[in-house]
Amino acid sequence: MDVNNFEAMKIGLASPRQIREWSYGEVKKPETINYRTLKPERDGLFCERIFGPTKDWECHCGKYKRIRFKGVICDKCGVEVTRSKVRRERMGHIELASPVTHIWYFKGVPSRIGLLLDMSPRTLEKVIYFASYVVIDPGEEGSTDLSKYQLLSELEYREKREKFGSTFRAGMGAEAIKELLSEIHLDEMYEKLREDVRTMAGQKRAKAIKRLEVVDAFRKSGNSPDWMILEVIPVIPPELRPMVQLDGARFATSDLNDLYRRVINRNNRLKRLLDLGAPEIIVKNEKRMLQEAVDALIDNGRRGRPVTGPNNRPLKSLSDMLKGKQGRFRQNLLGKRVDYSGRSVIVVGPTLKLHQCGLPKEMALELFKPFVMKKLVDRQLVHNIKSAKRMVERVRPEVWDALEEVIQDHPVLLNRAPTLHRLGIQAFEPVLVEGKALQLHPLVCTPYNADFDGDQMAVHLPLSAGAQAEARLLMLSAHNILLPAYGTPAMSPTQDMVLGMYYLTIEKHDSKGEGKQFADIDEALLAYDSNVVELQAPIKVRVFGKRTPTTVGRLMLWRSVPDSVKVPEDCPPEEVANLEKRMLRFSELNRTFTKKDLVKLVKRVHSDHGNTRTAAFLDNLKTLGFRFATRSGTTIGVDDIKIPPEKPTILEHADQLVQQADEFLRRGFLTEDEHYHQLMDIWGDATNDVEMAMMRHLDRLNPVFMMATSGARGNPAQVKQLAGMRGLMADPTGRIIPMPIRANLREGLTVLEYFISTHGARKGLADTALRTADSGYLTRRLIDVSQDIIVRSVDCGTGDGIRMETAINGGDIKVPLRERLAGRFSAQDLEYEDAEGNPQTLRANEMIEEEQAVAIEAWLTRGMDNLGRVPVQGSPDRRFERPGLLIRSVMTCRAKHGVCAMCYGKNLATGKLVEIGETVGIVAAQSIGEPGTQLTLRTFHTGGVAQEDIIQGLPRVEELFEARKPKNLGYMAEIDGIVSFGEEKGQRKVIITRPGGEERAQLVPYSAQLMVEEGDSVDVGDLLVEGFLNPHDILRIKGLEHVQRYIVDQVQTVYRDQGVDINDKHIEVIVRQMLRKVRVNEAGDTNMLPGSLQDVLFFESENDRIREEGGVPASADNVLLGVTKASLATESFLSAASFQETTRVLTEAAINGKVDYLRGLKENVIIGKLIPAGTGMDQYRRVEVGLRGGATVYAPRRDILDTDLRQSEEELAMGLGSHPLDV
Fold first, then answer.
1. Distance CA 332, CA 1167 (A)
2. Contact 33, 243 (CB under 8 A)
3. Distance between CA atoms of 622 and 601, rounded to whole angstroms?
4. With contact defined as beta carbons under 8 Å apart, do 636 and 698 qualify?
5. What is the pLDDT of residue 1185?
6. Which residue, 305, 306, 324, is CA-closest to 314?
7. What is the mean pLDDT of residues 1105-1125?
8. Which of 1013, 973, 1024 is closest to 994 using CA atoms?
9. Alpha carbons 34 and 54: distance in angstroms, whole number
10. Measuring CA to CA, how many Å separate 920 from each of 50, 777, 926, 1169?
11. What CA–CA distance (Å, rounded) separates 193 from 211?
12. For the segment 225-274, what is each residue's pLDDT rounded down to a tens digit?
């Protein structure tokens, strides 16, 4: 049997018999090792007879040494001669003198043992810890007045014993519980509880449902309830709880050894007491102590005070080994350390190409050591590997030649922590450099969020041919030019390069050579080289037969564009118009370039010419930008910060207005509040006036002005603080202090002004630290909830979709419809006209390209009013609606596992239809999480000037994704009708009355801001009170589609307010996961339990099956789960356990005998298999490459169709055909 090849993993309760079968022997003594000989003690916790030898092929007594005795069991010491690594896998056991309960099943919430026996946890605790007796058998009816499960105190027990003698049986401790559990008849109990659920209501029904769940779990899983009581305790292998010698004679040991030792000591003492026939009270006490020792071993601190070791530190129990960030799941199974890696400081490498990085020679030699050694042997410079190794270690000159050869075409991966999105790891071709620092291409700093102030990066080496191919084809930096979050370029010139390009392309009047005319581009460039014209002088040049006003700088930019991207210069003028639209025209480059323009230009080149040409173009822009940033000699000096002469006048005027406002306040014309707001307005206007005056007085070639307007660094708001006035500041509570800072940073602040400004600066720093952690945690929850969403098929066949409308907020169009439609599939047919007025047809299930999206938007927004609404076609009462179109969405996708390509649409990082195997869930979570951290880190750049802080941002996003009731709740109308008001319990009562007389009342606080007046007519879902809606109410009142749209729009609003672009589809992926479950109301004839959560598609398929059989289907309501709840409600217990609440998840899974089919990414990482996504997917792994008629053929192996991803040959071909690895 191949141990590594399995389809699923099951978890369950272990029976005593199974524990004994696992074991290689009983641990009888608490001793660990002999401190004199340092050898394990026999029958102790490290015994070699039970767990295997400590040295390879050597028994304990030394009678057998050497591999030739493999498998022999020594007749003297009883140790098997084998490898010492068996001490990592062989288990032992402890036979308990008295049964004990497993604390997970008795102390967990809800208590599983308590539910089965219908006893409260408190009652149970009294019995288990020997405080009360429980009646096991009340005797024959009428012979006693006792009932089964009744509790008796010590006193009552004695009385009943005297009164009834031995007609009844009662007991205490885990033995009594074990007996009660073994008497349970699960099937009878199941039927009775199902009947109770049908007939009861309220609390009783809820309890019956809970008990039914546990009973059903035991019935289905084949676990026996009395296995929750332990008779035998497994002892984990000794190498997993090691004991190591420190310097001197001291030892460090795992806490588990201490906990096991306590159990063995108490158990042995109890055995001895029982053999001696000790008094009952002593035995009870010893049994209780044994129970507590086992509790501490399994989960220390769950009940009572934790057992502590030396220096009062609680000992780490078995549960603690699994839990939390340092536990087995997150520390060792999900995150492993890797070989062939190194790290170093990064410095800029301005001469590198986009796909290159500078690798220090010494680091490269160490990383590529095995490859270099092989190369030396191949060249016959050495005769064997050993001498090759010696040669490399002595660093002979031949070694460097071998290294140069080895690194050709062998990419390396560079990673910068924190890796917030997939562009945090990219592949580069290494170039050997002197020194010890890694050299990084300046353009990849943006996606890495790296700078050169001491950042470090890690290097990893892909070893196998497959890994190298993936690094080169999928991860190379030149192939990752677009951001997966929005499809805009991730790499475009920044800082110095922007400044250089701006300087290169601006016009400067009154400069040398202005107005000169030239016959062609070469003549103009020659004139510049001969110092006849200056770089920015406005001149005229004949370009493509036309005299065109331009500058030498812009001609240089045109020349730097690769020929394959632009109209050829030798193209006859009359043919220019007929050339393809995608070729760059001179007119597109003949203007001043700011950062925004450069981004647009890069996007345009990429969408028309692909990765390779864009990479070359970017490199040319980089070189040009750096060269002219240097030539421009731009620096900042104090004289460049020009203070506007109008400033004193503006401030004087503001002071007069303030005095007037103060006078009005004194006379009582203004309230405190009005006065405060008036001051805000006065000083806000004054600050803006100073800023405007300042910008007017800055020269276009002023370095500060150039940096701010070109987008190279800083913004007008920061220039305002330098040269205008700092303006209003916020205090620690976030309230704006009505006394502005009049000075700017050039004049310098007074002590008082400085003091006021420190508030904001400090708050910025504190916020940053706090929010970074919050954002990271949000990302982690998003990743967890969406990790198993992988594109698994081309089309799920659904006819559903969502209506995509223009994003409008407060009357402003935030996102035009064309941007929301491009790259999505239509879910309806549409007849429309293009820009030329030609009729066009968009069919359902057809992808909307960008040009189509522009035409469709123009067609749909005809006759739009100033609220962004259009008249509804053919409606008699002239209703209005927002323009929109029905499109396919992952929220309505019907794929059973993952999603289909057509519901997802275009992959934003490539601009093509998403491929099968793409991990769209992870990409979505990264796209939402990455800017979260960005925003949180952006607070302190403004130096704490009063400005909207993301405090509305991150907590609001979290509130939406966790589906919490909002802090400032807005109430919504639950029915249509007329509004009236009343009062009840000191709150305002809003009553809505239907024409039929039905009314619905809601209590709202008096402090709430009403949105309706007496007598208003409202529709279902209208806001009655200002605030955020509760998403659960929207789901209940208006239904699924409305709550989906609400969450997507609200999350988008937060990010857009921060100036962050995220495509809707990423948020839709998360929302899909939040609405995957339904809660069963009536089970009908299905096997589902009332009140249980079921997957929507499973629920529907069950109901279809029951209908076919002629039964009564189940009914259910949609449920909105927050991302944490949704992650824990996943099918996979491995994924849930490694996320949060590990013990609770494992308890639940064990009782249910859950099977994990390893469909997500985390499960496969945990068990060490390739993830079922991308090139790790079955249909890409099981491909045989062969030659047919001289051509390479990719054919699916026959057994691929036997997996759970059964797909048509045609789909398979589509999936393979679109994948980059079939190049």
1. 11
2. yes
3. 14
4. no
5. 61
6. 306
7. 94
8. 973
9. 13
10. 49, 20, 10, 20
11. 8
12. 999 999 999 999 999 999 998 887 788 999 999 999 999 999 999 999 99
| pLDDT at res. 1193 | 57
> How far from 1162 is each of 9, 142, 391, 786, 1042, CA to CA, in Å?
13, 60, 43, 11, 32
Q: Residue 981: is its pLDDT beyond 60?
A: yes
The mean pLDDT of the chain is: 88
DSSP 638-662: GGGSPPPTTHHHHHHHHHHHHHHHH
Mean pLDDT for 1028-1056 is 92
Q: Which is more confidently placed, 340 or 1190?
A: 340
The rounded distance, in Å, linking the Cα atoms of 578 and 600 is: 24
Amino acid at 90: R
Say yes or no to pLDDT of 670 above 90. Answer: no
Residue type, 1094: Q
Structure tokens at 1167: 């068990």
Which pLDDT band holds residue 277 (cuts at 50, 70, 90)? very high
Complete domains list, the chain, with CATH: 9-96+233-332 (4.10.860.120), 104-227 (no CATH), 341-479 (2.40.40.20), 496-632 (1.10.274.100), 638-736 (1.10.132.30), 786-942 (no CATH), 950-1158 (1.10.1790.20), 1167-1222 (no CATH)
Of the candidates 527, 539, 1057, the one whose C-alpha atom is nearest the C-alpha of residue 810 is: 1057
CB 557 within 8 A of CB 624: yes
Who's near 791: CB < 8 A, 6+ residues apart? Answer: 898, 899, 900, 901, 904, 914, 915, 916, 917, 918, 920
- The mean pLDDT value for 328-357 works out to 91
The full length of the chain comes to: 1223
Q: What residues does 1115 pair with on adjacent strands? A: 1082
Please state the pTM of the whole predicted model. Answer: 0.88
Q: Are 730 and 690 contacting, i.e. CB atoms less than 8 angstroms apart?
A: no
